[in-house]
Write a structure and sequence with these properties.
heterodimer; A: alpha/beta; UDP-N-acetylmuramoyl-L-alanine:D-glutamate ligase; Protein-Tyrosine Phosphatase, Chain A; 2 domains; 9-stranded mixed sheet; 6-stranded mixed sheet; 14 helices; globular; B: alpha/beta; Rossmann fold; 7 helices; 13 strands; 29% helix; EC 3.5.1.2 (chain B); ligase (chain B); GATase_3 (chain B)
């Protein structure tokens, strides 16, 4: 798997022109203050050469990473692990649709590996265009219900799109929708990575029967679709490899979900001959991912910035925050990139925040206020993050925000 | 109301709880407890029988295949129809609303029989999905303030002669028939397309169900300032020009 053409075929003049034009567009976009420019650059390049993504990828050993949650972090962890074996190009900033991916790959002509985060809706297409060596599938759950496809339909599309793929698929055995999506692939490495959120997989993706979920196991009572035997597993603070050896996970990133991401990343690294010990040691270097998990100082107070975009993400986030009386600021928006329907707030068990001083901000602070009122926990509604921080009792503040709310906070605190 | 506690039954959360539908159960439960009522909440999974002795039944929204599975299992079970004939209060949202009608179009594009507890028939819209904030006037006979909610559906629901429109839309599509109706109800069975969830945006609907179940005309007041603030914000957001 680690074999790499020593003398890759050079890019065609057309592809080169497309890369150059894309970079120029990105520079213009950056100069205009419109973000990193990677997406606009990729769009320009793809327009000039629609096959550019495939052409850029053919010089690389490509790893694709997709999921509802954890794909940006896992992409970073895999990239760090594979750097043990060669240079890596990656869309580390989370621009995960074809234009952003093209732009990222265009910046890495000397790389050996391409580690690519892919938006769930584009996975099948990007897998077709880039002929990946490995595909990591972490989890699927409800997200942006006002515009996303149904969660089960997404699993179905993955299943069709990945059917017969030549890639090694590294997939979470604990998520029935992931197992359904992956099991059309001939070569799957199952990882018992866990999945706290279970409410999108109570009916069997195969036959619709009611799922039975005793302990960590799951199976359909009607058709026999069941959890596959994993060859890798997350076990507390260790990764168990297929030989049964336990490797300690040392991460700066907090929480169970990130340990799960590390376990999956170790299994991916092994596909390319990087041993788990080496892979896991390298993952320690990852400190914050696009601002997530970063601890910043703002108005003389320490804030930890946590991103939670959907019920499954909030659930994992609640399990990693400091115990009460650690103050918590919650911020929720419902702009286009968040999904405009806030109904999902009611799938999140905010009762788990009882005992924390809670401050509420964001465009949809009143939706949160009603949610918390019904959960029976105390809270304060604030107009701004400045006010919320001023009201917070002593201690490091845990700030949990959904997508655009998180970006708003980062801008304000200068992260 | 049976015995001393109010029985609140949430039907099939394993299939019909895609749009925060638990919120309706939580709000009804909370507002009952705030009035000193003892509430027993029963969540019924689709491989369990639906109890027939509940006071209030809630049934929520879901995706197309789970909706068909729910209809099949509810028809086979028969518990919800028996509860309805016992006079139970039933409140349904979106996919659940369609299931309570005579028929709807299922995920296979076929006509799927519903439970016929409310006189409506649902078809599938050809145009764009109805997604967005809704503002509507609830049937004045119910004595409720304006309805605010969020809709997200492809279905179109036609009312028969014994179903009354639950509300008349000011903004949004509602039943999608173009006649401005939103939802439907008869004496004890209610249906709406409103998510939000609808009780969080309209706690007076939860109170209406409690009053019907308890057979009382009024309930002790509650501190509703956050609900009121949310309502005011959503109504303003829906009515201001984009």
């Amino acid at each position: 798997m680690s074999g790499h053409p020593g003398n890759p075929e050079p890019l065609s003049p057309r592809a080169k022109l497309a890369v150059t034009a894309g970079k120029a567009a990105a520079a213009v976009s950056r100069a205009a203050g419109r973000g990193s420019g990677s997406v606009i650059g990729g769009r320009v390049a793809l327009k000039l050469d629609p096959d550019l993504l495939g052409r850029l990828a053919q010089h690389l050993d490509v790893v694709l990473v997709s999921a509802t949650n954890g794909k940006t972090t896992t992409t970073r962890l895999i990239a760090e692990a594979l750097r043990a074996s060669g240079p890596v190009v990656s869309n580390a900033l989370g621009a995960n649709m074809p234009a952003g991916i093209t732009s990222a790959l265009a910046g890495g002509s000397d790389a050996k590996y391409g580690v690519i985060e892919v938006d769930e809706k584009y996975l099948a297409g990007v897998a077709r265009d880039t002929t990946p060596k490995a595909i990591a599938l972490l989890n699927l759950s409800r997200d942006q219900l006002d515009r996303a496809a149904e969660t089960r339909m997404l699993a179905e599309k993955w299943r069709e799109g990945l059917s017969g793929t030549k890639a090694v698929v590294i997939a979470n055995a604990d998520d029935p929708l992931i197992v359904w999506a992956a099991s059309s692939s001939p070569n799957v490495v199952w990882v018992a990575a866990g999945q706290e959120w279970k409410d999108d997989a109570w009916s069997c993706p195969s036959c619709g029967g009611v799922m039975q979920r005793p302990g960590d196991d799951w199976f359909c009572g009607e058709c026999g679709f069941r959890r596959p035997a994993p060859s890798w597993a997350l076990n507390g603070d260790h990764v168990l490899d297929p030989h049964g050896s336990a490797w300690p996970i040392h991460l700066q990133l907090p929480g169970r979900a990130n340990k799960a991401n590390a376990a999956t990343s170790a299994a991916v690294a092994a596909v390319f001959g990087v041993p788990p010990q080496v892979a896991l040691e390298r993952m320690y270097q990852v400190q914050a991912v696009a601002g997530r998990y970063d601890v910043v100082t703002f108005q003389g107070r320490e804030l930890r910035l946590l991103l939670a975009k959907n019920p499954a993400g909030w659930l994992e986030t609640f399990s990693l925050i400091d115990q009460p009386p650690a103050p918590v600021i919650l911020s929720v928006n419902a702009r286009g990139a968040d999904g405009t329907d806030t109904s999902w707030l009611w799938d999140v068990d905010y009762g788990r925040l009882a005992g924390h001083p809670i401050m509420v901000i964001g465009d949809r602070k009143l939706d949160l206020a009603v949610r918390l009122e019904v959960a029976g926990v105390d809270f304060r509604v604030c107009e701004t993050i400045d006010e919320a921080v001023q009201l917070a009792p002593p201690g490091q503040i845990e700030l949990i925000a959904n997508y655009t709310a998180f970006q708003d906070v980062r801008r304000r605190v200068g992260n | 109301m049976s015995d001393s506690s109010l029985r609140l039954v949430w039907v099939y959360p394993d299939l019909l709880s895609t749009y925060g539908d638990q919120g309706n159960a939580l709000v009804v439960e909370r507002r009952a407890r705030q009035r000193g009522l003892d509430v027993q909440r029963v969540d019924v999974r689709s491989d369990q029988p639906v109890p027939t002795s509940g006071d209030i039944y809630l049934i929520g929204g879901g995706e197309d295949r789970p909706q068909r599975l729910a209809a099949e299992r509810l028809r086979r079970d028969g518990g919800l129809e028996r509860a309805a004939s016992n006079g139970a209060i039933i409140f349904s949202v979106c996919a659940g609303y369609q299931i309570l009608g005579h028929e709807f179009i299922n995920d296979l594009g076929e006509r799927e029989p519903g439970l016929g507890l409310i006189d409506v028939i649902s078809t599938r819209g050809e145009g764009e999905r109805c997604v967005g904030d809704v503002l509507a006037d609830i049937d004045p006979r119910l004595g409720l303030p304006q309805l605010t909610g969020f809709e997200n559906h492809q279905g179109i629901t036609h009312l028969g002669p014994t179903a009354r429109p639950f509300a008349r839309t000011i903004l949004g599509k509602g039943n999608g028939t173009g006649d401005g109706t939103e939802g439907a109800y008869n004496d004890t069975v209610f249906g709406t397309y409103m998510h939000g969830p609808v009780m969080a945006r309209n706690p007076q609907i939860a109170d209406l169900l409690l009053k019907l179940a308890l057979d009382v005309n009024a309930l002790p007041p509650t501190d509703d300032r956050w609900y009121e603030a949310l309502r005011a914000e959503r109504i303003a957001a829906a009515t201001q020009p984009a």
